[in-house]
UniProtKB/TrEMBL annotation:
InterPro entries: GCP, GCP_C, GCP_C_sf, GCP_N. The keyword Coiled coil applies. One of its GO terms (biological process) is cytoplasmic microtubule organization. Residues 166-196 are annotated as: Disordered. It is found in: Cytoplasm, Cytoskeleton, Microtubule organizing center. Residues 622-871 form the Gamma tubulin complex component C-terminal domain. Its main location: cytoplasm. Signal peptide: none annotated. This is Spindle pole body component. Keywords: Coiled coil, Cytoplasm, Cytoskeleton, Microtubule. Residues 285-615 form the Gamma tubulin complex component protein N-terminal domain.
Length: 940
């Protein structure tokens, strides 16, 4: 009786005949294991478990729209359920018990494989199979004939079962004897082999197979022994064959060429050690080994440098001098390949620690992966040549057959690429230098194949940098968590956590610049020491601005914004090639700078426009600009005029007015009293300056100086404080102080007219008139021709500007221009001194008028009074006159005023003609020219 293992092997042979021997053994062991486990009861399955799996298979088939398979499984499961319920047997009385039915089905499930086309065909046939209708008429007739035993009886001779001798039956000998007769073929007996004969035949066949296997084993052993002997005598063990000496008595070139080789001829010319040689095929094998990084008998590797082994075997067809040059060049190429392999192995090896892994540049790793792909292509080329030699393929033009042709083919196919990659390896630790170098290689060579290789190398290497650039443009710069703060103070928590930018990109964070610094937008994130990549084209300002704008938007509006999709650079180049159509070919030079700029320009511009819209619509740019100009340029007429009136009244009454509290509260009260909806009073603050006295200031000259030191500040909320920097606000505040000085001088001159009350001295009145004309001319020019016109131009330019960087530059340019026109620049220091001296004369003129009036009153004393009273009155008037300083003489002041105004006119006229021919210079000269033209009336 066969064993379970034998039955299992037979089962596997019938069910899976396509398996090889190893797979059949493995499958048989697996089936036997399952059967043994089932016998022991460890994996026995119940009908419910099996039925659940069958139903699951049916549902899975229906989900996959495999209706035939699902219906077939349903029909089969229904038949099994019916058999279990009726406890019926099987056809042909198969020895299967109903109680063991789950185990048999589980075995079939374990042996099953995923449904194939054959499975679906069988399911279809199973569903459409016609049920058996019993035996046909012919089958019934044949059954009746066979039941009657038609072949029994003496007339049939001996039957198959009546054989008494080994071998064939008697009918065989009868047939042999009858061959000589003329009986027909129909009379020949039908003979069949006996059981013993069949068994003998099988045994003979098995014996022959065993003998054949033995002979095959002996032949293999003999071949292995021959191969082993050959390996023992291989050239890499013996060092090659000893070069036989050159034959003697060789004369003429013909004999030298036919009866001698190059190595023997070269050796005969000198006395040296014994020379060993190898064949050309063996030398080719050594060269291929060296190029693959494996040492041999000709080449050796020392510190990854390939060198020729001293005294290496030579080839018969080449002399030592001839072969040294070729082998030296091949050793150089092998050294290059080995250095690339070592670089790839170093960069792709697992890091010793997480910190070391983070310190490794991703661009360098990407470059190493690109080098790996290139080395694999070289290794594939080497292996194809080696395979051709090993398999004995026919030599054609594609397979170099000599060392010189191999070197030429290697240089032609990989030479320039090898030189380029090896030169890039020392630069790989700096991503910017590495990518710039690859881009230079791409644009420098005219060969299309090399150019395509350089472009592919660049695209593989640039992927990490391109990804980080995408995060900068799409996500923006890292921002503190507490970016948005109080709307009035605009403070930012400097201790708040701020993200870091990937060091892979060339944009760096200057940690010396805080978020609250006025030049943060310009210097907070700058280009690193490596500079801007040349392959990025003229996109520096646009990329920096877009990243900063996106980060600021994300900080103000949250991170749930619809960001643009960032495409791979390779896909961008492929789309560009598709758009160019048939005119584009592989290897055509692609202007990466232009292509990148065309791709990222819309993304950057949309981001910049979004920030501009947020600043204007959500942050109130227009309203805050109105407030700043209304306070610092005195354009908030009602509120600022009321404040100036109040301030002048306090000065006239001798109250203390120059402390911070009085100034700030007075300005805020004036704004609130005039219903100034254009300004938040809490955002305004005023300080007296560093040179102001703590006490009350009463002298006009001191008041004039103190007013020039006044500084008003307006706390602009973030992020508008990026635009209105402290520098621009200080420039506006300086102009504010100058305007307040002019207003004070005008008010003092008005007081002078009130004090005189219609009684005038011609010289004094002429002086007052000239002062009034000069100050009024200066006031009209600075307010209407400078501030009003320049602010309108500034607003028009600001409305057309979308970049926050350009807006900041425009704001500083505007405030500095007005500062220059207010004589507050260093190059107009002399002009400012003359203006201040003129204003000093104006503010001190009322004191002179008071002294002159007292002197005139002494002349109208009643002559009827006694002498004592008159003398007393004179002494009193003389005391009042003596309080006027001697340097306040009207005539000298008039001359001084003329000199001052003349100096101012000359300086302004000089400024009207200075400068270049640019639009800015022409505009600046035209403004000075208007003041010069207005001052020409002084002569008249």
């Amino acid at each position: 009786m066969p064993s379970l293992a034998e039955l299992t092997r037979q089962l596997v042979d019938h069910l899976a005949p396509v398996l090889n021997d190893y797979q059949k053994v493995y499958a048989a062991e697996y089936v036997q294991k399952e059967l043994s486990s089932d016998t022991k009861g460890s994996t026995r399955r119940e009908w419910v478990d099996v039925l659940t799996k069958l139903n699951a298979a049916e549902r899975a088939a229906r989900v996959r729209v495999q209706e035939n398979l699902a219906d077939g499984l349903n029909k089969c499961v229904g038949g099994l359920v019916g058999m279990r319920e009726n406890v019926t047997g099987w056809e042909d009385d198969l020895p299967i018990q109903i109680s063991n039915l789950p185990q048999h089905i589980q075995l079939l499930l374990n042996l099953s494989s995923p449904p194939s086309a054959t499975t679906h065909q069988f399911a279809y046939e199973y569903l459409h199979r016609q049920p058996s209708s019993g035996m046909s008429e012919d089958q019934k007739l044949y059954r009746e004939i066979m039941d009657a035993e038609p072949f029994s009886g003496d007339h049939w001779g001996k039957g198959y079962d009546e054989e008494v001798t080994r071998g064939w039956t008697d009918s065989e000998s009868s047939s042999d004897d009858g061959r000589a007769t003329d009986s027909s073929v129909d009379d020949e007996e039908i003979v069949t082999p006996s059981i013993e004969r069949l068994a003998l035949t099988r045994r003979e066949e098995a014996r022959r197979q065993v003998e054949e296997r033995v002979r095959e084993g002996e032949r293999r052993l003999e071949s292995a022994q021959v191969a082993l002997d050959t390996l023992e005598r291989a050239y890499w063990r013996t060092g090659g064959e000893v070069l036989p000496p050159m034959e003697q008595d060789l004369f003429g070139w013909k004999e030298l060429l036919t009866r001698c080789n190059a190595a023997s001829l070269s050796a005969s010319m000198g006395d040296g050690p014994e020379i060993k040689t190898i064949s050309a095929q063996q030398l080719q094998r050594e060269i291929l080994f060296a190029l693959a990084g494996r040492p041999g008998v000709v080449f050796a590797f020392d510190d990854d440098v390939c060198n020729l082994i001293p005294g290496h075997p030579q080839t018969r067809h080449m002399s030592n001098v001839a072969s040294s040059g070729v082998l030296g060049n091949l050793a150089h190429r092998a050294t290059q390949l080995n250095s690339i392999r070592r670089f790839v192995k170093t960069q792709t090896a697992p890091a010793s620690s997480p910190s070391a892994r983070r310190a490794r540049p991703k661009t360098q790793e990407a470059f190493a992966e690109a080098c790996r792909a290139y080395v694999e292509s070289v290794d594939s080329w080497i292996s194809n040549i080696e395979t051709a030699f090993a398999c004995g393929s026919a030599v054609d033009d594609s397979i170099p057959s000599t060392p010189l042709s191999l070197l030429a083919e290697l240089d032609r196919t990989f030479g320039d690429r090898l030189d380029g990659i090896v030169s890039l390896i020392p630069l790989s630790d700096d991503p910017i230098v590495l990518l710039n170098s690859i881009h230079s290689m791409y644009t420098s060579f005219a060969d299309s194949a090399y150019r395509q290789h350089s472009l592919d190398l660049f695209l593989r290497t640039v992927r990490p940098v391109w990804t980080v650039l995408g995060r900068w443009i799409v996500d923006g710069m890292p921002v503190p968590r507490s970016l948005s703060a109080d709307e009035v103070t605009g403070q930012i928590d400097l201790d708040a956590e701020e993200g870091t930018i990937d060091p892979e990109i060339w944009i760096k964070r200057d940690r010396d610049v805080s978020w609250t610094d006025e030049d943060f937008w310009e210097t907070g994130y700058v280009v690193g020491e490596g500079g801007w990549p040349e392959w990025m084209g003229d996109t520096r300002d646009m990329v920096l601005e877009a990243g900063k704008a996106r980060g600021l938007l994300r900080g103000m509006m949250g991170g749930d914004q619809d960001n643009e999709r960032w495409d791979e650079l390779r896909s961008i180049i492929e789309r560009d090639a598709e758009q160019r159509g048939k005119d584009s070919q592989a290897g055509d030079l692609v202007n990466l700078g232009r292509l990148i700029e065309d791709h990222i320009a819309p993304i950057c511009q949309i981001t910049i426009f979004q920030l501009r819209r947020v600043l204007e619509e959500d942050c109130g740019l227009e309203q805050h600009l109105e407030a700043v100009e209304g306070v610092m340029y005195l354009k908030g007429h009602w509120s600022m005029a009321h404040w100036l009136d109040t301030l002048h009244t306090r000065m006239r009454k001798g109250y203390r007015w120059n402390d911070m509290q009085s100034l700030t509260s007075g300005l805020r009260d004036a704004i609130e009293e005039t219903d100034g909806q254009w300004l938040n009073p809490a955002a305004v603050r005023m300080s007296p300056g560093r040179d102001s006295s703590r006490g009350a200031i009463t002298e006009p000259r001191d008041i004039l100086r103190a007013l020039g030191a006044l500084r008003v500040t307006y706390n602009v909320p973030y992020p508008l404080s990026i635009l209105f920097t402290s520098t621009s606000l200080d420039l506006r505040a300086a102009v504010f102080g100058f305007l307040v000085q002019l207003d004070y001088a005008k008010r003092r001159l008005a007081e002078n007219a009130g004090v005189r009350g219609g009684r005038m001295d011609h010289t004094l009145d002429l002086l007052a008139h000239r002062l009034w004309w000069f100050i009024e001319t200066l006031w009209t020019w600075i307010t209407e021709r400078v501030i009003s016109v320049q602010t309108d131009l500034f607003r028009a330019k600001l409305a057309k500007t979308s970049s926050l960087k350009d807006m900041i530059g425009l704001e500083l340019e505007h405030t500095r221009l007005i500062r220059d026109f207010a004589f507050l620049h260093d190059h107009t220091a002399d002009l400012h001194e003359h203006v201040m001296a003129t204003l000093a004369i104006a503010v001190e003129l009322p004191q002179r008028v008071s002294g002159d009036t007292a002197h005139r009153a002494s002349r109208h004393v009643d002559e009827s009074e006694d002498e004592a009273e008159v003398l007393g009155e004179k002494e009193s008037v003389r005391g009042a006159v003596d309080t006027v300083p001697s340097d306040l003489d009207v005539s000298s002041l008039n001359d001084d005023l003329k000199a001052r105004v003349q100096a101012i006119r000359e300086a302004v006229e000089r400024l009207a003609f200075e400068g270049g021919m640019s639009d800015e210079d022409v505009e600046r000269r035209s403004v000075w020219a208007m003041l010069s033209f207005a001052l020409d009336d002084w002569r008249r």
